[in-house]
Amino acid sequence: MTTVLSASGLTRRFGDRTVLDGVDLDVLPGRMTGFVGANGAGKTTTMRILLGVLAPSAGEVRWDGRPVSAADRRAFGYMPEERGLYPKQHVAEQLVHFGRLHGMSRPAAERAVADLLERLDLVPHADDKLESLSLGNQQRAQIAAALVHSPTALVLDEPFSGLDPLAVDAMAGLLRDEVARGVPVLFSSHQLDLVERLCDDVVVLAQGRRVAGGTVEELRSGGTVRLRLQVAAPSGAPSHGADLGWVRDVPGVEVADVDGAGALFVAVEPGAEQRVLAEALRRGPVTSFAPVVPPLSEIFREVVR
Ligand SMILES: Nc1ncnc2c1ncn2[C@@H]1O[C@H](COP(=O)(O)OP(=O)(O)OP(=O)(O)O)[C@@H](O)[C@H]1O
């Protein structure tokens, strides 16, 4: 499967408010794409448009290079923000029903549901009403509903919110399996450490516009790269014996932190880092000198400002 789910120029107005403004998005097959942005940035609106729950004011959703059809969309898996299962129905029964709605035979749907319940640790709750489950377990059932029919693409609105670490791992494992099948997976999240850990690609929205996107590595290395200098503490002296306070006085350098034998700084002028290194070597042995790639959370703060 080599099918891309893409959107171009997605725009959505509610009355005279434009909440999405020309958003382009590619969710590539066999890759996990994280969709991030502050509250109200437009993630849910975008996902609803991808699934056809909401019409765009302008722009287009494409699947396999052509405008997406209703039949294409029926084969997608979706976990909507408002969730989609019935509180009063029994868990396994309604998951089988979901599979049947997607055209599966009863035995095939039952097999898929049994497998998902097992993987999501929901077997003891198979015959419980959804509303009697804890919120985290209800969420596990919701993801099962999105996966039961082996979807061709997955669009998940905050699937990880409210999950305990074991449930996060179970969910992540399931999504990785879908990615390994070649499925394009898009999920929104405010948990940037999780996005950094799980995703190949990231799209960042701010106030209805796409403000950054690319692979996680590209985004991180495109941020403000700081350098860390570590020097040897003089023998017998505690580490603060090697005071790197002098780094603050090097022209073209902004110091983020000095901590005894270590300093973290940004070279705001080309070549300033070489002056720091030369001065450090003049003073004694250097144990390490390396760039520190910022975490995604820092990039996020830089791009949505
Ligand atoms: N039906 C609607 N009518 C009017 N405004 C709406 C409607 N749906 C969404 N909006 C507005 O669109 C903007 C984007 O909302 P959306 O839910 O897409 O953001 P989000 O990025 O998913 O936010 P969050 O992280 O808080 O879930 C918000 O300002 C919201 O109030």
UniProtKB/TrEMBL annotation:
Pfam families to which the protein is assigned, alphabetical: ABC_tran (PF00005), DrrA1-3_C (PF13732)
InterPro entries linked: AAA+_ATPase, ABC_transporter-like_ATP-bd, ABC_transporter-like_CS, DrrA1/2-like_C, P-loop_NTPase
Matching PROSITE patterns: ABC_TRANSPORTER_1, ABC_TRANSPORTER_2
GO MF annotation: an example: ATP binding
Listed transmembrane segments: none
Family assignment from sequence similarity: Belongs to the ABC transporter superfamily.
Name assigned to this protein: ATP-binding cassette domain-containing protein
